[in-house]
Amino acid sequence: MLVMPPLQEPTFLVLTALTGEPLHGYGILQQVTALSGGAVVLGAGTLYGALDRLAEQGLVAVEREEAVDGRLRRYYRLTDEGAARLATEVERLRRNANAAAAGLRRRGFQAGLE
């Protein structure tokens, strides 16, 4: 069984942002910030570098391009392979969180574990 390395948090959030509809770069930036409660704020250069890498890996694809005010706006979508990779990461995180919560409960620590 091939074990995938964990996704970095920004990558996880970019893929999560694309689980709904295709989004352009600025829309992805807004979604990542919202999903993280403001804890992760990506710069445009970081985002587009990540999108290029994710596209090379087959996890995202360009859905369409359109010109807006003379500038090209590219919309990205999550591929089926990207959705599968995200699902694998969700399961890994859930398993780790459950193990941590069980250990904390054994210590008698309940706050935030409901």
TrEMBL record:
Instruction: Check the record and name the Pfam families matching this protein.
Output: PadR
SUPFAM superfamilies noted in UniProt: Winged helix' DNA-binding domain
* Gene3D superfamilies assigned to the protein according to its UniProt record, in alphabetical order: Winged helix-like DNA-binding domain superfamily/Winged helix DNA-binding domain (1.10.10.10)
Transcription regulator PadR N-terminal domain location is 14-87
The protein depicted here goes by the name PadR family transcriptional regulator
